Amino acid sequence: MSLKTICTVMGARPQFIKAAPVSRALGTSFREILVHTGQHYDYGMSDVFFQEMEMRPPDFNLGAGGGTHGEQTGRMLVEIEKILDSVKPDYVLVYGDTNSTLAGALAAAKAQIPLAHVEAGLRSYNRAMPEEINRVLTDHVSSLLFCPTDAAVENLSKEGITKGVHRVGDVMYDALLYNLASARKRSTILDSLGLEKGSYALATVHRAANTDDPARMTAILNALGLLPTRVIFPAHPRTRKMIREAGLSVSSNVVMVEPVGHFDVLILQENANCILTDSGGMQKEAYLLGVRCITLREETEWVETVEADWNKLTGVDGNAIRSAFDGWHPAGERPALYGDGQAAEKIFQILSGNVL
Questions:
Q1: What is d(CA 12, CA 172) in angstroms, rounded to the nearest whole number?
Q2: What is the pLDDT of residue 208?
Q3: Which domains does the chain have, with CATH numbers?
Q4: 10, 104, 109, 274: least CB-packed within 10 angstroms?
Q5: 175, pLDDT greater than 90
Q6: Considering 36, 117, 206, 236, which one is annotated as catalytic?
Q7: CA-to-CA distance for 3 and 252, rounded, in angstroms?
Q8: Total-model pTM
Q9: 329 has catalytic annotation
Q10: b (16+ CB within 10 A) / e for 85-107
């Protein structure tokens, strides 16, 4: 009996981090074809990254990064359709909410191949965000919807999606548990930057709503500059380009560094006194690590971190950011919101035909 084939479509660094535990769980029970769209074509996607994740290199690299959202998604769709026609997989597997997610979803739907969506059901309810459009459309053409939280299941139910929905927990939790031990052994980032635990804040900014808006980026930099602590700021290439082209100034307490590897990111997060970010994944990781998070957005798809009072939504308002940093120190319990660290195994069981 031949193995079932799964075509996994990804293109952004967080997607590979999420996919690594699922690929390990699939093991030799499936034939997995890895497709890298090239959405992140320079940023942290070197061979070293795949080695850290213990993943083999992708079978296909489409090099489809750059351009507008429509151009990028269109190029991906054309190339993914060719691969699906050649490989003829039993499932297409996508992660999250990027243009790569949507392109993989549309290609699978057009080819009438069952689609499995990891991180299904997330909603920020802000349709101005490209990610929100991507995740909604992907969910509505998926056959299997792997939800990280009860809230995600409820969101799908509100939209009439109940068939094929499974609450499996969050694969990011699986990845965190697996990678943190290695990160503690191998990362030297604290020594190289002269940092001690709790002596700095960590900031990341990458969403287009912030990086492509000079006024919002100016507000963020001004707010970081007013914080009474050293701020380590690994700057995404798009963010660095915006700062340079707009002629924005960076305060002396803000230390801009090049993007760092995943192990270094984990150690920087674990030892920070606060994380300031517009990243969805980092909001979750902060919660799981027990580090307070200030989210530089007006809404989040990870609402349960806010409800548990470990995450504050401030947008880019400098007063709100400073107020949260100075006056808010969560002390409550952190409920097990994201499962038991076995999401990948549950996904494997469901894909294998074992109903959970």
A1: 14
A2: 84
A3: 5-170+339-351 (3.40.50.2000), 178-327 (3.40.50.2000)
A4: 109
A5: yes
A6: 206
A7: 57
A8: 0.90
A9: no
A10: eebebebbbbbbbbbbbbbbbbb
